[in-house]
């Protein structure tokens, strides 16, 4: 499975189970959308299956269906009909359905001779004589207790129904009842909704079906709660027409739009998109110092965005010891003195640390805690998290403290808007095991219910608000009026937290291309990639140049580009292993290469 580009699931819970298994058993990093495996990204897609709605709508109008419909109505004249169809399998909840129906007749004796349950059972995947015996005994018990010689409240059919009869039963039913205790996508519920296009009668649906998360108009129940199901049966039988119509409209619109064709197209599009994205991210080339130096020299307005740990300074076992060298300080100072430059350090560190080691550099912009706090050049720090609810931190800290006590050498770093568990100084084999256990616990028990994001960093786990990430602060800087006319953009980072910056930079460049091409010309002439590793949009005198070897190197010609967007060189650089997956377009091996590079750039006049 993990050698696939994409893995599709009917429900989110199934995808989550795979993520947890990969984290616990294989020690892989994962998110709800991605599993990292052998430097590859396996994309997880949640695409619930649909049905052929048009075919079913046409079938239910056939004369044979109409004839069977009238026959059933004559047979059960004056009775409310509850319909269910299930395989004879323990997970399909047939016993739970019968127990709930029996309880309904106990609770509401006035309904005993006015309602009938038609239960169709088709053979399961395996022979289950014990289950069949229990079902038969329960039906006999209900019919003997509440029935008579003339009437049986439960009508039980052990066979496959011909399609026309099945459709007719769904059309005339007053209530659909599905009580499975474990299921994927229950297409019977979708078929019932389509067949009820005219009558709009309600559907009781087990919360354990895959469709429960999509069909919001259904009455959702826990099939193990017999009393509640019994009460819901009564409520549905007396439901007013207005509520019926509203609920059915919600369900029908979803089933109509998410049909089998939509499912197939969604899956194919997901596969194509993921394959294209992954192929673009292979083989990150080493950054060409000559190319970037020439671009820097010829530019007139530059934005330089740098990560701290692993980019400006090497990773150290003790975070407090990761301080910038005098060479780095000198180079940053010279860069900031150039009026053409806007230089920012965007770090996960707290503001106190950045102030201490970089705050003396005049003209340098600082962003702490992944964009939660910002200090513009020559200004004081401002918080972007004051309005956020951070009450979750206490809960996360308890979890991190639990693993810290059991992992010698690890420690917790608590920031204003985030909290991090470091295990760099612990025994790495055991620490990785503990990290996987902690990550799995956070993903399954905490993250889904809290407004937080879990980041797997270098020998650390961090939990931060979803609203705070490096991409957001980069977006703010790019959209700032101070950067109008930007013609040089340099972004460098080393880990997953920096991917947000790379993605934002790429999207910014793509938006410029899209906006300009849409406004100036409806037709773009695509040419073959050139060796120059660039994308040109130009007429005789104007172009937008994007220095990125993996971004569709092509020339796109049109008339008239605004003077404001004459030229933009964008360099996104990942520090470290060039074979790891990244949204960056260039690579340098170590943080020392970044230090050398900014020194070279700082000396260009």
UniProtKB/TrEMBL annotation:
<dbReference type="GO" id="GO:0005829">
    <property type="term" value="C:cytosol"/>
</dbReference>
<comment type="similarity">
    <text>In the C-terminal section; belongs to the trehalose phosphatase family.</text>
</comment>
<dbReference type="GO" id="GO:0004805">
    <property type="term" value="F:trehalose-phosphatase activity"/>
</dbReference>
<dbReference type="GO" id="GO:0005946">
    <property type="term" value="C:alpha,alpha-trehalose-phosphate synthase complex (UDP-forming)"/>
</dbReference>
<dbReference type="InterPro" id="IPR036412">
    <property type="entry name" value="HAD-like_sf"/>
</dbReference>
<dbReference type="InterPro" id="IPR023214">
    <property type="entry name" value="HAD_sf"/>
</dbReference>
<dbReference type="Pfam" id="PF00982">
    <property type="entry name" value="Glyco_transf_20"/>
</dbReference>
<dbReference type="InterPro" id="IPR003337">
    <property type="entry name" value="Trehalose_PPase"/>
</dbReference>
<dbReference type="Pfam" id="PF02358">
    <property type="entry name" value="Trehalose_PPase"/>
</dbReference>
<comment type="similarity">
    <text>In the N-terminal section; belongs to the glycosyltransferase 20 family.</text>
</comment>
<dbReference type="InterPro" id="IPR001830">
    <property type="entry name" value="Glyco_trans_20"/>
</dbReference>
<protein>
    <submittedName>
        <fullName>Trehalose-phosphatase</fullName>
    </submittedName>
</protein>
<dbReference type="InterPro" id="IPR006379">
    <property type="entry name" value="HAD-SF_hydro_IIB"/>
</dbReference>
<dbReference type="GO" id="GO:0005992">
    <property type="term" value="P:trehalose biosynthetic process"/>
</dbReference>
<dbReference type="GO" id="GO:0003825">
    <property type="term" value="F:alpha,alpha-trehalose-phosphate synthase (UDP-forming) activity"/>
</dbReference>
